[in-house]
Amino acid sequence: MTAPDGLPRHAEAQQFPTLDDVLQIGGILLTRLAERVGRTPFYAYERRHIASRVGLLRQVLPRGVQLHYAVKANPMPALVQLMAGLVDGFDVASGGELKVALDAGMAAERISFAGPGKRDAELRCAVAAGALLHLESESEMERLARIGSELGMTPRVAVRVNPDFELKLAGMKMGGGARPFGVDAARVPAMLRRLAQLELDFHGFHLFCGAQNLSAAALCEAQRLSVELALRLADQARVPMRMLNIGGGFGVPYFPGERALALDAVADGLAQSLDLLRRGSPDTELILELGRYLVAEGGIYVCRVLERKRSHGQTFLITDGGLHHHLAASGNFGQVIRKNYPVAIGNRMQGAALETVSVVGPLCTPLDLLADRMELPRAEVGDLVVVFQSGAYGLTASPTAFLSHPLPLEVLV
Ligand SMILES: *Cc1c(COP(=O)(O)O)cnc(C)c1O
User: Fold this and answer.
1) 210 lines ligand 1 (CB under 6 A)
2) CA within 20 to 30 Å of 59's CA: 9, 101, 263, 351, which one?
């Protein structure tokens, strides 16, 4: 399968960016962009990259699969608004994200709301707006039915199932075994019997097995098992399943040695799972929800060198950015073994003399590390340090209040 013009071929898609890419984002020279933004640190997200990533998926995925964006990956309002025109729906995980999604102009019927601890006020907002609620427990179902009757409305619901299998090789497991997410598959039939007695409008099932997976085979297996489980549950409960959200979990390469996901292979597997679903339940809509895969590679984080320091034979670049803005790049957002994100000196041309340096932030903790003994062009005070793969789980996944530094800016270019 060939990619559309201008897009990378899937097999070699998204190797780590070269310095040529570094120098421009959204067609603007990085140094120029830094001037325009006016201060560092900042995040920059590229519209073109995000749109072409969605375009690539549309091209490759089987027709009929609905593509949703998981807002928590990057809830910047301008980016969510861009996304509203590109995807078929949004998945949100809080009342705050629901507001961002609605403000971006996404129709409420195409917004689903999952999350294990929804407060009554959040449920009320979601019901009033007309969003689809993914039930994470039997007691949440009862609360929601009560809220619906108070509002005189019939809440639209799906049941989030904690599957009885695991997504192999996932960077973050979210299903299989004891989990705070969803309802154990074995309990779902009884839950559906109770649901039928309540004033709730049942739409189908949601399964989300895990995130950051680079193995097409593991993803395809989880998708097939998800469809089989959903068909079995719908059959036992004798309920029509109008929609099935099988999660996503598509990973992106962050570290040396990681290879981009083989999207063609994922698409082939998904076509088979879609077939299976169509045979068992012809009118069920199949939804894929992706966060990171849509936005991670379209974003950079940029900070400035404040100090060069030598200590016991090692060189440190001390910057104005760090883990308070970008926890994931520091290695403290769920990573087991710390590895360096791809980092470059954004205003130094290739061919400059290299040196081995550690890039650190201004915080008084040894955890505030953006690059550990990495080979980079020699940088001076005032130079720009760029962290790639920063479009997802960056700013809003970071402890911004720690040490009371100002927030970084965010721009969509
Ligand atoms: C976080 C989350 C996602 C998005 O995961 P990515 O790894 O960013 O694709 C999708 N669905 C649910 C239910 C989530 O909690």
Assistant:
1) no
2) 101
Q: What's residue 9's pLDDT?
A: 34
Tokens of 351: 């061919």
Q: Which residue has a Cα nearest atom 6 of ligand 1? A: 291
244 Cβ contact partners less than 8 Å away, ≥ 6 residues apart? 204, 205, 206, 207, 226, 227, 230, 277, 281, 284, 285, 286, 287
Residue matched to tokens 């040196």: 355
CA 290 – ligand 1 centroid, Å? 6
197 pairs with which residues across the strands? none
Q: How far is the CA of 38 from the centre of ligand 1 (A)?
A: 33
Give the integer Cα–Cα distance in Å for 49 and 395: 19
CA 7 to chain centre: 21
Closest atom of ligand 1 relative to the 93 alpha carbon = 15
Is ligand 1 within 6 A of the CB of residue 292?
yes
Can you list the domains of the chain with their CATH numbers? 10-45+297-412 (2.40.37.10), 114-290 (3.20.20.10)
Could you say which residues of the chain have pLDDT below 70? 1-22, 169, 174, 349-351
Closest to 14 (Cα-Cα) out of 322, 391, 410, 397: 391
Q: What is the pLDDT of residue 17?
A: 55
Which residue puts its alpha carbon closest to atom 2 of ligand 1? 70
pLDDT digits (tens, 9 = 90+) for 111-138: 999 999 999 999 999 999 999 999 999 9
- Mention every residue, 6+ apart, whose C-beta is less than 8 A from residue 406: none
- Residue 248 CA to ligand 1 center (angstroms) comes to 7
Angle at 339 between CA 337 and CA 345, to 5 degrees: 165
> What confidence score (pLDDT) does residue 349 get?
62
Place of tokens 């590895």: 339
Using alpha carbons, select from 149, 138, 146, 90 the residue that is nearest to residue 116.
138
Spell out the alpha helix ranges (H) of 115-215: 120-129, 138-151, 188-197
Q: How would DSSP label each residue in 230-287?
A: HHHHHHHHT----EEE----B----STT-----HHHHHHHHHHHHHHHHHH-TTPEEE
Amino acid at 213: N
pLDDT at 19: 54
Ligand 1 atom with minimal separation from the 206 CA: 13
Q: Give the C-alpha separation, 109 to 396, whole Å.
A: 26
* 389 Rama class: left (phi>0) / alpha (psi -120 to 50) / beta: left
Determine the distance separating the centroid of ligand 1 and the alpha carbon of 204, expressed in angstroms. 18
